[in-house]
Write a structure and sequence with these properties.
Elements: H1 7-13, E1 26-27, H2 30-38, E2 47-51, H3 57-64, E3 68-73, H4 79-88, E4 93-97, E5 113-118, H5 121-132, E6 141-149, H6 150-157, H7 167-173, E7 176-184, E8 189-190, E9 197-204, H8 213-225, H9 231-234, H10 241-248, H11 261-271
Parallel strand pairs: 2-3, 2-5, 3-4, 5-6
Antiparallel strand pairs: 1-8, 6-9, 7-9
The chain binds S-adenosylmethionine.
Residues 22-27, 51-54, 57-58, 72-75, 78, 99-101, 118-120, 123 line the site of S-adenosylmethionine.
Length: 273
């Protein structure tokens, strides 16, 4: 195994005090980082996009697993620490200084790639939604391995009937399979955040036929926008939605959170033209 200085030393030597504004909570436990890098499966010679490498803890674990890592980081203070990793794993690491929100992942690779990241909450959810949206499917990414606040992770895998079930669950489940790979205690981070975290692993699945992603979004937006209301009320503004409910035999007195992902898909299909 390539021997590298402890991450604590890297942080001290490069003066990488965690910035609150950049949502920086670093992972320093190399055993934990090794376990996270194993979640996507065999990464030998695989292309991996890592968003927000920071001092490079997850990056070094991915490199040790044999991945070819493209790391996008917007905090330029981290670049010298990442350059040391480039020296230790020649030809395996490409670092891009920039805002991951402004870079389309697929422009960085010619073939398939996995995505792995320990991101700040806001950016993480926005990127997640972006990676799961759009009409083109399957996506070029083969899997997502992402750290989230535990509460957000639970919303992603939520089943109908629970208060966590909503737009994020439908988006994540209608043509992909998400699972919580592991929970991560807040004390694993430096500095520790206020809340517990969990790692979500997602793989793409077949896209149901005859459904526009945009229409499914419109339906879930309307239905969950007024989640306490009956569907006949919340979907009133969506043309033909009430007729479609009747045709599908979905009781319009039901509320959004009782509909299965398959029922949302059927509804969106009926409204897709
Ligand atoms: N991956 C490191 C680890 O696990 O210790 C750092 C994790 S820290 C929670 C999040 C990292 O994402 C920080 O290094 C931060 O600078 C970076 N970051 C935040 N917003 C970003 C963005 N929009 N684009 C790229 N990197 C971003």
């Amino acid at each position: 195994m390539t021997s590298l200085p402890p991450l604590r030393e890297v942080i001290a030597r490069h003066g990488l005090q965690a910035s609150k504004a950049l949502g920086q909570n670093f992972l320093l436990d190399e055993q934990l980082l090794g376990r996270i890098a194993a979640i996507p499966g065999n990464l030998k010679d695989a292309e991996v996009l890592e968003v927000g490498p920071g001092p490079g803890g997850l990056t070094r674990a991915l490199l040790r697993a044999g991945a070819r890592v493209t790391a996008v980081e917007m905090d330029r203070r981290c670049l010298p620490a990442l350059a040391e990793l480039d020296d230790a794993f020649p030809g395996q690491l490409r670092v891009i200084e920039g805002d991951a929100m402004k870079i389309a992942a697929e422009t960085l690779f010619d073939g398939p790639y996995a995505i792995a990241a320990n991101l700040p909450y806001n950016v993480g959810t926005a990127l997640f939604v972006g990676w799961l949206s759009g009409e083109a499917w399957p996506p070029r990414w083969s899997s997502l391995t992402l750290m989230f606040q535990q509460e957000v992770a639970e919303r992603i895998v939520a089943a109908p009937g629970s208060s966590a079930y909503g737009r994020l669950a439908v988006l994540a489940q209608w043509r992909a399979v998400p699972r919580i790979a592991t929970k991560v205690h807040r004390s694993a981070f430096t500095p520790p955040p206020k809340v517990m975290s969990a790692i979500i692993h997602v793989v793409p699945a077949a896209m149901p036929e005859g459904v526009s992603a945009r229409m499914l979004e419109r339906v879930t937006e309307a239905a969950f926008g007024q989640r306490r209301k009956m569907l006949r009320q919340s979907l009133k503004g969506l043309p033909n939605a009430l007729d479609a409910l009747a045709e599908l035999g979905i009781d319009s007195a039901r509320r959004a959170e009782t509909l299965s992902v398959a029922e949302f898909v059927a509804l969106a299909r009926a409204l897709t033209y």
